[in-house]
Amino acid sequence: MDVTLQKQFDAFEELLGDSHPALRVAAIEGVSKVLSAYWELIPAETIRCFISKLVVDLVNDASSSSVRAAVFEGIQFILDNHNSHSILKPLLPMLAPLINDRNEKVRAEFGALLVRIKSIRNLHFYDVVPVNDLLCRMVMDRDSPLACKQLVSLFLNSYFPQSVGGSSQVARCLALVRKNPEAAMVFYANVVEHVSVGSVCKLAALLLRCSLNFVSRRLKQPQESEEDDEDDEDDEEESFSVVGQVIVLEVIGNLLKSVHAKVMTDARYSECKTFLREHLNVESLEALLLAYSEDRPYDQEALSSIWRIIGYLGDLSEGVLLERLVENLMKMNENSSRKLLESMVDCMTQWEQLPFLTSKLAKFLDQWRMNNFRADAGGPKSKKSKKKEAALNPVVVLGTIEYIAQLSSLKNLNALLQPIVEVLGACIEPILEFDADEVNEAYKANSFGFIRLLEVYAKVLVLAESAHVNEETSLLVDKWAKKRLSKKDDLRDLQPSEFFTPPKTLGSLFAWLARLMLDFRKEVEATEQTTHGKKRRRAKNVDAADQLSPQKELLSRWRNLFSLVSLLSAESVAYALERTHWLQNGPAADFVDAYVDTLCDTLRDMEFFERTVFYQAGQLAHLLESVRVKATKAPVAQSANLVPSLEHWINTLQQALVGAHDKDKGKCDDLWPAVSASFGEQCAVESPAEETVT
């Protein structure tokens, strides 16, 4: 019998060391179950050998994450036998570093092991991995649902116990907020997976009451900074009320977000909806808004969280609060928190008020076009017009438009954006006729607003076209679902990129930016030559001359704007080139033609070397070359029209880049190896084709 057992143990040991990961995984599971079931019958030396193999060697198997995960799963089997606890207890802390394993499945299995350890009387999970490390890991795993779920389950009884009263739950929540604010936000955002929806709603209501208590104390007590009679506990509460209270509001928002879909749409949770209507009423929310509307430190962060809360309450909070939201939106300026602006837009999205908002934004842009942004828009303004200007800041309007355009999940986003795109186009059309002097005047009048207008216009053009692609793709999917398309149907071959047309006006904007950038560079060089002469005569003015001049500041921001539009154009080109049906004279080809011509003309017209232009041209050459290599491997029918166009664009760019390099070698030698790397690749790919022809 002993010989037979030893043969089995030897077979297990051999399988645990097998070269194939799948066999090692199966062996780990088998050995673990055998140890769990027959611990008392296995020799102690054999047990130590197997445990050492698992906990020391295989758990650190760098070649397979499945093997590492299998070890944690196997240890859970072994722990089912109480005789294993005394041996495993001193060994388990050795596994602590693996809580940060790069593989999510391994971290999830480790979390499951810690949950299992928590249920064993003589073992403690915090002796295996410190609590602070686990909380930090939970924050890092906020976007890893498998691992995060286990860690939330691990701390459930500590920070959201179900067997205690509401006051104890609030106290535990505040304790976690003090200990690790980020972990508190992640924990309560995911706690709904482990408790009932009603429990989550109840905690949200209790925390809101706690917030109201804080702000009522804050409003009643006069601000007397010279008084020092408060004890240490009062000081702690006050410090928590200023910083930690914002986190509590974030926690409330996360709780409501986690149950929003169920409470607002599922009739089974009608009681929860009624409960929220009673305890998170308009009066309470208005009191919170009032308490944080005095522009004190952290007020804007608190307001952002409050508007998130209001938005997740849906139609329970619309009415009066919609007027207050519009009022607060009109008070915002370029220094206001972007997070607050986004929360208010999200709130209007939940209320289905975006059409109302976008119509107002379009009207204001049209008014701004007629009154303010033009370089020659001077003259006196009435008090009434000044009030209108102060009521809605142009930078806030542009930021709101930019954020709405990024909400790709919105239904009918393209329809919402079209009026705004038209008004933005009307704003930009006269600007594209400006020369350098007119741009200088417009920049001096409203530097941030002027540049922001150009940035947002470029982004919205691409995002609106992307929204159009999403809508067309959705229609295609619906048609596919309703009617099975035959193999001969052309719609079967359509890709989303087939619906994408690069915006023609983006090319016009890019050409205008490139032309003016060269003009601004000439102005800067001329100014520097004049300043350099004065420096030598007046050494006292060296420090003043070294400061960034208005011309240099404009040139720097113009380069950034040029790079942004160039990147948007390159992304549009890359997406358009994914289509399988390519037209040599189509709008996409015309856009690439214009983009390439603008870069090449700018490279040739440069009196002073511009690294930005050289770099962007090199990047486009790399992009087109990678597409060309891929196209040569595609079926002949698909590549017949595309490859000749690609070769023409690549050759044009290469000639312009070589010319610019020969002209300014010393200024672009560091960029040249990367830029010219693809030049040889084309020759290497083309050489077989040339031999075949001959």
UniProtKB/TrEMBL annotation:
InterPro entries: ARM-like (IPR011989), ARM-type_fold (IPR016024). One of its GO terms (cellular component) is nucleus. GO terms for biological process: mitotic sister chromatid segregation. Residues 221-240 are annotated as: Disordered. Residues 224-239 have a biased composition (Acidic residues). Transmembrane segments: none annotated. Coiled coil: none annotated. SUPFAM superfamilies: ARM repeat. This is Unnamed protein product. The lineage of its organism: Eukaryota, Sar, Stramenopiles, Oomycota, Peronosporomycetes.
